[in-house]
TrEMBL record:
This protein's name: LSM12 anticodon-binding domain-containing protein
GO molecular function, one term: RNA binding
Biological classification of the source: Eukaryota, Metazoa, Ecdysozoa, Arthropoda, Hexapoda
Family (UniProt): Belongs to the LSM12 family.
Short name of one Pfam family: LSM12_LSM
Length: 199
C-alpha cells in the first residue's frame, strides 16, 4: 500500500485504487485511524452539481493511496458538531413510527389501511391505531375498508373535511398508480413481443 498516511486531514483530496481496480478520488470527510476507514466525498455519479457520492473505503483493502492535495488541520475548518437533540428526536420518531406499524400488523390491518396510514402520517403526526381503525387528531376515525365513506367524525369540523380530502387524494393516487402498472406490459410480455417481431 504505497503512500498510506497515518492520518488524513479533513478537506484533503485523496485518490486510491480499490481491490477491484476501481479508482476513487475525493475530499476527506472523515478518517478513523484505528479501523483504517476513510470516507471520501466525490462528485455525483449522476452528474448533478448539488449532489455528491460518498465512498467508505477500507484502507486495508486498497492497492494504492495518494494524497493529491494536503490540507493542514489549522487551515481546515473544524468539523461541525452534531445536533444530538435533533438526532435523538429523529430516532424517537422513527421508533414510534415502527411501533405504530407493528401495532397495525398485530391488529391484522390490510395493506390498503397500512398505506393510507403511512400517507397520512407523512403530513400529520397525531395519528394512531385503535385496533384496525385509524384515528387522526383524536377527532376523525377511518374504519376498514379505508374508503372516503369510511371517514367518521363531526362533518362540520375542519379536521373531518381535511382528512376526507387526504383520503380522497390517496385513493386517486393509488388508482392512478395501479392503472399505470396495468398499462405497462410486463418484461416477459415485452420480450415475447420482441421475439414475435423478429420471427
Amino acid at each position: 500500500m504505497a503512500g498510506v498516511s497515518d492520518y488524513f486531514s479533513i478537506g484533503s483530496t485523496v485518490a486510491c485504487k480499490t481491490c477491484y481496480d476501481k479508482e476513487i478520488e475525493g475530499e476527506v470527510l472523515a478518517f478513523d485511524q484505528q479501523t483504517k476507514m476513510l470516507i471520501l466525498k466525490c462528485p455525483s455519479s449522476c452528474g448533478r452539481a448539488s449532489l455528491n457520492d460518498v465512498h467508505i473505503v477500507n484502507l486495508s483493502l486498497v492497492s494504492d493511496v495518494q494524497v493529491k492535495k494536503e490540507v493542514s488541520p489549522t487551515m481546515s475548518e473544524p468539523p461541525q458538531s452534531l445536533n444530538l437533540q435533533r438526532l435523538n428526536t429523529r430516532v424517537r420518531n422513527q421508533i414510534e413510527e415502527k411501533k405504530r406499524m407493528v401495532k397495525a400488523l398485530q391488529a391484522g390491518v390490510s395493506p390498503q389501511g397500512q398505506k393510507l396510514f403511512i400517507a397520512i402520517s407523512k403530513t400529520i403526526n397525531e395519528i394512531t391505531w385503535d385496533g384496525p381503525n385509524i384515528v387522526v387528531w383524536d377527532k376523525v376515525t377511518i374504519i376498514p375498508p379505508y374508503k372516503i365513506e369510511n371517514v367518521q367524525g363531526n362533518s362540520d369540523d375542519k379536521a373531518f373535511t381535511h382528512i376526507k380530502k387526504v383520503v380522497e387524494k390517496h385513493m386517486r393516487d393509488t388508482a392512478a398508480a395501479e392503472s399505470q402498472q396495468k398499462d405497462q406490459p410486463s418484461q416477459s410480455q415485452q420480450q415475447a413481443q420482441k421475439g414475435n417481431s423478429t420471427q
